[in-house]
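Try this one yourself first.
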C-alpha cells in the first residue's frame, strides 16, 4: 500500500468517512449480546481492554485490540472523574481513532464470514463501540454482556465444579525425582496431563523461580487451569504432579488441590546420585549465576542456622556442585517434602522405584505406571533391574 494511502487511513477524514457510511444504519446488523464467554459460534475472541488489563488476565486465545491504550484509559478516567461529559467526548475521540486503526491494521484482512466475540471490562462502552462498527461492516459480531466480569465469574464457577469431574493420578516424590520430566513423557504417550508448574512458570521450591521469567497473575493462572481442564476428557485419567497449595506466588485452586489430595498417588524413588545429577542438569542458570542462588538461600535463614547456610554457600562458591546439591536435598528439601506430603494426602502412597532417568528405564517405568490399577493401596513396585 502506498504511503499516501497509509496516511489517509490515519487521518480524521478517514474516520469521518467510515462513520458517514452508517447513514443507512441497519438495525439488522447490530451486535448480538451473549452471556457465554466460551460461545462455540465465534471464530475469534477480541479483548478491547488496555494492554495492562489484558496482561493481568484474559480469555485464553483472545487477541488484544485495545480501544484505549493504558495511558489513554488513565487520561479518560481522570477527566471523567472531573467532568463525565467531557470524559465521554474525549473517550469517544480516542476510541474512534483506535477503531480506524483496528480496521486498517487487522480487520481489513478478515473475510465476510468472520464472527468475533468482543469484550471489555464490564460497562460495555468500549466493546460495544467497536462491535457496532464491525457489525455495520457486515461481520456477525457478539458482545459479551458485562464483559470480563462475566468471564471471571465463569472461571470461578468452573474452578468449583470442573476439578471434581476428573479422576487424577498424582506423581509425588522428593525434589529431583524427575516428576515434571515424567509428566512430559506421559504427555508424549498421549496421556492426559495437567502441568501446574508449567502453567505457574515455577518449579515449586525456594529455588524454583525461572531466572529469566515471571509468574502469571493468580487470575491468569486460574484461567489457564480452566482452559486446560476444559480440553480434557473426564472419562480418562489426568496425571498431575503433587503440589503444595502454593507454587511460588500463585495458589492452586482450593477444590482442585482437595481433589488431588484424595487421589491415588505414586511416590517416585530415584537414587540420590541420579537425583543430584538431574538437578544439576535441570538448574544450569542457578549454577552459572551463583550470586542469585546465594540470595535465594539466604531466605531460608528462618528455617536453618547461619552455620548451615554458610556451609551450603561455601560448597557452591567452591564449585562443589554434587556435594552442594546433595546437602540441600538431605538437609532441607527432603524433610520439608515429607512434611508436606503428610499434610496433602489422606492415603499412603504407592511406592515406585526407578533406577535412572535414562530413556530405557523411563519408558519401561511409565508403562508399568500407566497399567497400575490399584487405588489407595500402599503397594511397593520395584524395578526388576533395581539393586
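Now uncover the answer:
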Amino acid at each position: 500500500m502506498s504511503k499516501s494511502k497509509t496516511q489517509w487511513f490515519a487521518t480524521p477524514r478517514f474516520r469521518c468517512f467510515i462513520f458517514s457510511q452508517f447513514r443507512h444504519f441497519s438495525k439488522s446488523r447490530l451486535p448480538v449480546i451473549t452471556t457465554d464467554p466460551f460461545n462455540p459460534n465465534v471464530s475469534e475472541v477480541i479483548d478491547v481492554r488496555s494492554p495492562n488489563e489484558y496482561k493481568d488476565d484474559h480469555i485464553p486465545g483472545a487477541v488484544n485490540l485495545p480501544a484505549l491504550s493504558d495511558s489513554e484509559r488513565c487520561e479518560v478516567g481522570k477527566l471523567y472523574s472531573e467532568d463525565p461529559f467531557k470524559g465521554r467526548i474525549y473517550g469517544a475521540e480516542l476510541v474512534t481513532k483506535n477503531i480506524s486503526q483496528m480496521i486498517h491494521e487487522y480487520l481489513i484482512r478478515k473475510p465476510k464470514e468472520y464472527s468475533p466475540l468482543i469484550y471489555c471490562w464490564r460497562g460495555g462502552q468500549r466493546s460495544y463501540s467497536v462491535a457496532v462498527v464491525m457489525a455495520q461492516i457486515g461481520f456477525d459480531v457478539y458482545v459479551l454482556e458485562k464483559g470480563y466480569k462475566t468471564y471471571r465469574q465463569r472461571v470461578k464457577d468452573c474452578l468449583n465444579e470442573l476439578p471434581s469431574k476428573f479422576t487424577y493420578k498424582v506423581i509425588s516424590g522428593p525434589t529431583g525425582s524427575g516428576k515434571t520430566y515424567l509428566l512430559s513423557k506421559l504427555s508424549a504417550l498421549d496421556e492426559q496431563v495437567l502441568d501446574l508448574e508449567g502453567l505457574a512458570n515455577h518449579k515449586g521450591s525456594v529455588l524454583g523461580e525461572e531466572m529469566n521469567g515471571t509468574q502469571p497473575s493468580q487470575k491468569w493462572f486460574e484461567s489457564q487451569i480452566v482452559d486446560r481442564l476444559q480440553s480434557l476428557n473426564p472419562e480418562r485419567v489426568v496425571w498431575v504432579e503433587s503440589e503444595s497449595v502454593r507454587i511460588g506466588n500463585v495458589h492452586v485452586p482450593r477444590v482442585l488441590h482437595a481433589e488431588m489430595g484424595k487421589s491415588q498417588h505414586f511416590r517416585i524413588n530415584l537414587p540420590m546420585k541420579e537425583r543430584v545429577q538431574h538437578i544439576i542438569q535441570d538448574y544450569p542458570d542457578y549454577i552459572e549465576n551463583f550470586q542469585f542462588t546465594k540470595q535465594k538461600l539466604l531466605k531460608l535463614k528462618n528455617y536453618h542456622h547461619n552455620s548451615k547456610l554458610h556451609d551450603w554457600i561455601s560448597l557452591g562458591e567452591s564449585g562443589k556442585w554434587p556435594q552442594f546439591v546433595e546437602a540441600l536435598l538431605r538437609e532441607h528439601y527432603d524433610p520439608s517434602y515429607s512434611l508436606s506430603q503428610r499434610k496433602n494426602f489422606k492415603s499412603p502412597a504407592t511406592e515406585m522405584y526407578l533406577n535412572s532417568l535414562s530413556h530405557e528405564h523411563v519408558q519401561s517405568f511409565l508403562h508399568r505406571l500407566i497399567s497400575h490399577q490399584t487405588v489407595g493401596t500402599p503397594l511397593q513396585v520395584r524395578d526388576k533391574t533395581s539393586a
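Discussion: The CA atoms of residues 41 and 177 lie 45 Å apart. The first strand starts at residue 32 and ends at 34.
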